[in-house]
Queue: 2 jobs
Job 1
Amino acid sequence: MTFQRIAVIGLGLLGGSIGLAVREHLPSASTTGYDADPATRARAGDRQLVDKVCETAADAVCEADLVVICVPVGAMGEAAAEFAAALPSGAVVSDVGSSKQSVAAALEAALPGVAVIPAHPVAGTERSGPDAGFASLFQQRWCIITPPEGADPANVAALSQFWEALGARVEVMTASHHDMVLAITSHLPHLIAYTIVGTASDLEGVTESEVIKYSAGGFRDFTRIAASDPTMWRDVFLTNKDAVLEMLQRFTEDLTALQRAIRVGDGEQLFEHFARTREIRRSIIELGQDDTRPDFGRSDHGNS
Ligand code: NAP
């Protein structure tokens, strides 16, 4: 079974990219879309992110066989409640939220009796809004599907096929496992980036112009991550609190160990640690999940 009438709720980076990718890879399918922001709806219409931009969420979903909710995780329940009464029977509802246990609970509460199959395409950029989306966002990226207990396997298979058609590789796991894995691979790195950029900008004795001027010394990559959407990331930390706090605790312990190695001059420990982490980078490149070129292919190779 392939979905043929896809409704996208929220027409920012993720929603816009889904609309464009469906047009490119599933040309027989039709798309409708809705966003709470009238300016976003207008811009989505100009860019033709979906075939038809609707004025209400109910209009967008009323003929859909798949609804994909692409709003910040804290707004999932509210977005679903808005179209619940208009949903055709048999439609599958999914989402793209970055945390999964809280989203599953919010969607199940808002859509009792509906086939809800949450998912998270692990693909994105630091940009947001209706101008940010592009059709190739999901190419070769993972999409994690987190079916609730008792979900119809046919719906899980259909959603997997949908994401594979858009270019993604699919993995199925529980929502709690997803939240733990993403806490360390995505959420904690964002927290660290937000912290370090804030710390640098608060430093006395180092001017803001120096922070910008010498940013190629490693800081620049943190600033890209720390430019991510504040609403999205506020919601991620509030909805994946337990897993993030657990990973933060482990991180703090490891940081303290490195701090001690520096203080006591334990070069061997530092070298061993850095050699091990370099291997992880190699594995990521081998798996095709990042650019092989030095400095991510930037033309102006700065200090590292
Ligand atoms: P985005 O570009 O800001 O788009 C979200 C859109 O949803 C905005 O236009 C927003 O309008 C709209 N919206 C908010 N509440 C709504 C509601 N109740 N009904 C309809 N529309 C509503 O955000 P995004 O980056 O696409 O992120 C969307 C989701 O994808 C989030 O759950 C995020 O966790 C997940 N995700 C993001 C990334 C990433 O890298 N960005 C990667 C993977 C997954 P307003 O601006 O007016 O609020």
Job 2
Amino acid sequence: MRASWSLTPPTNVTGLHPRVVVGLTGGIAAYKVVSVIRSLVERGCDVHVIPTESALNFVGRATLEAVSRNPVHDSVFDGVSEVRHVAMGQSADAILIAPATANSLSAIAEGRADSLLLTSVLASTAPIVVAPAMHTEMWEQESTQANVATLVSRGVHLVGPASGRLTGNDSGVGRLAEPDDIVEAVLAVLAPKDFVGVRVLITAGGTREPIDPVRFIGNRSTGAMGVALAEAARDRGADVTLIAAHLEVPTPRGMRVIDVGTAAELRDAVLREFVSTDVFISSAAVSDYRVASPSPVKLKKSSGVPTLELVENPDVLAEAAAGKGDRVVVGFAAETDSGNFEAELARKAVAKGVDLLVGNLVGESQGFGNVPTDIVLVNSEGVRVDEVSGSKAHVAGRILDRVSRQKDSAR
Ligand code: CTP
């Protein structure tokens, strides 16, 4: 029987478990960082929390150990034989300081070494992300601003602070950034940078074909897979353009987004953008048919049961692939027939002329939204080259690994 839980973090986008040191410093926002730690573990990170003494007044060691799935140390005199006061920093792939208090920003900027967290920071060459949280007056204080400017000039990544309700009755700048934004910032510094200078065009979501002004023919695609690909490409340094058709997930930041509604609008946008891209990933569910003459007014029940005449939409992917030159073109295939799955993928890969085809089985309760997914990748000849299971972020990373290899061999 398969256990429904596991102590091993899921494999991350690179197939490894990057080691993230989370420096928890003494502010009330420390309780929110528990969910940041949990998300990092879920995204495949091996998280080691180093709390300051005052942070432990806000969140208990047991909570941090349970959520990070690792022992929590906070003293330079713990594990002396392992030279832990520098080993944790030396072995880190990234360090997150969250919440970063005014005091901790000052100590890091000054290069102090009077806690396990500070010796770890000093002993590390890994990228550092700081997520400050404090009252507005403290944040705006010249000394704090000077410390932040020093850290940023040394390459430290700043996430937040946001503006909003603070701990007392006050509100203003100084609130900890949203946990998801902090997680994204950490994953961004961990990502390999193999797409720097590469232009990536991605379609995501599902098109809608109007029947009348209020009704349409659509599909259940949420855009989660396309958005995961766009975010992964962005984090790996790509210059991303996302053609978004009715996304049901938040619109990603750090890229150009072109909103489209119908298959015809998506086609126009793709053909316009395709000329200036290096990689095209067609993950949108594009309607194969549209209504021949959508009604300009709402269809009335009193007019009787309507008959819809459908006409075929052009296959945008096949059209783009036909003029692909040395671009890398990736298609998707959503299938419901598991018996014929692989044969159908092979057929589509060849028929559409793509470099890679990502196949997944979909159904009523399978494949849609931010849920784990299983995919099979086939090459231009329809031969299986990889299979991946996991979160959409994980799967997106593996697809990009393949694209990265393909673009290198095309050069
Ligand atoms: N696609 C496209 N234009 C269309 C239909 C699909 O560009 N009019 C693209 C999708 O973005 C996806 C791929 O084609 O990358 C596969 O779509 P899918 O619906 O699985 O394949 P079809 O060719 O429509 O085949 P079938 O409906 O017979 O399964």
